[in-house]
Amino acid sequence: MSDSPKPRLVPLSHWKLPLTPFGCLWIPCSNRFVCLGTDSGSGAPSRGIIGVYESTSGEIKDIQTIEKPRAFRCGTFGATSLQQRHLATGDFEGNLHIWNLEAPETPLYSAKAHQEIINCIDGVGGLENGHGAPEIVTGSRDGTVKVWDSRQKDLPVANMEPAVGFNRRDCWTVAFGHSCTQWDRCVCAGYDNGDIKLFDLRNMEVRWETNVKSGVCCVEFDGKDISLNKLVATTLEGRVHVFNMQKYHRNSGFTCRSEKPYKFTAWAVRHLPQNRNIFITSGGAGCLHLWKHESLTMHDRSDHEPDDKISTCTTTLLNNISLSSQPIGSLDWNTDKQGLCISASFDHNVHILMITEQQSF
Fold first, then answer.
1. Of 83, 167, 320, 360, which alpha carbon lies 20 to 30 A from 196's?
2. pLDDT at 6
3. SS in 3 state form for the chain?
4. Which pLDDT score, from 0 to 100, does residue 359 have?
């Protein structure tokens, strides 16, 4: 009897973008997506561009182009409801805005969030699968990580920054997690020096930190609205680190498995919303890799801990595909159509792909 066919990433369509894309996002509950970035291909960024596109019957159509004075660096739909579908963006001058894409002339919410570029953003609580307030987290080159509630004007609800006298490292990535009750919530942040910090927003403390010895490009939990389970981090040196967050060991922290699928930068990671054991990563040579979190295994480990059984992470590479000669800087899964993925690369191309053989997961 032959083995079951392996899942594959199959390209469905692609589109040449009139902008340098720093983010691509499916618009919730629709067949539309946005790409955001700048019209400047090189040098200092100029205008900000949000392109709205529609995917129908294997074809991509240009629906709308929104232009703003400042280049966009990142965006999320995560903090608003499925009915609202408002887009939160961070730009190169440290501004946080929330936009209604159907009336984008004036932002619904604005804040001077940071003194320098907002590198990263994430939202939680708004897509009806989380708990607590609808919040947005931003990370910046100024070394701070801030949490915002759009119902509160101007001031963040939390501000995580180094103490006086400590170096301010460039924050490249942020992600919400552990939003499993009305009170619990965490933020994970990755920095240019390899630091990863887990902030507990309930107790306002650093719950855990480590260093992976290379700049952290992206971090993501396998689910925002569940207890801490798995965390994936991608780095400049092309590594993918998978942390088992279920059990903390006092001597060695959380157990970690590390893979190096890329010669160059591992840019992004995204977990499949309908199956959090499946995730995808993108690389600097224009490649995508599809992975699976396998069942946790147990092994003996005696280092003076009362419980000497500890869980480890097992990760399997399902398949990969090459789409471009340039880095794929952003990814997103469709929350309605399982296995439908979008990616944007720095050669100004956006690709739509589909996973085959999903029954083998």
1. 320
2. 87
3. CCCCCCCCEEEEEEEECCCEEEEEEECCCCCEEEEEEECCCCCCCCCEEEEEEEEECCEEEEEEEEEECCCEEEEECCCCCCCCCCEEEEECCCEEEEECCCCCCCCCEEEECCCCCEEEEEEECCCCCCCCCCEEEEEECCCCEEEEECCCCCCCCEEECCCCCCCCCCEEEEEEECCCCCCCCEEEEEECCCEEEEEECCCCEEEEEEECCCCEEEEEECCCCCCCCEEEEEECCCCEEEEEEEEEECCCEEEEEEECCCCCCEEEEEECCCCCCEEEEEECCCEEEEEEECCCEEEECCCCCCCCEEEECCEEEEEEEECCCCCEEEEEECCCCCCEEEEEECCCEEEEEEECCHHHC
4. 83
- Please state the rounded mean pLDDT for residues 93-109: 96
Q: Two tokens at 337?
A: 């159509």
Residue 338 CA to its chain's centroid (Å)? 18
* Strand-by-strand arrangement of the 109-112 sheet: 72-76, 87-91, 95-99, 109-112
Name the more confident of 294 and 234: 234
For the stretch 105-131, pLDDT in tens is 999 999 999 999 999 999 997 655 567
Give the mean pLDDT of 257-277.
95
d(CA 129, CA 276): 14
pTM summary value: 0.92
Q: Extract the tokens encoding 57.
A: 């019957």
* Residues counted in the chain: 361
Which token pair is 207? 């719950």
Percent of the chain with pLDDT strictly greater than 90:
75
Contact in structure between 104 and 86 (CB atoms under 8 Å): no
What pLDDT score does 176 carry?
Answer: 97
Give me the amino acid identity at 141.
R
pLDDT digits (tens, 9 = 90+) for 175-200: 999 998 888 999 999 999 999 999 99
343 in Cβ contact with 351 (< 8 Å): yes
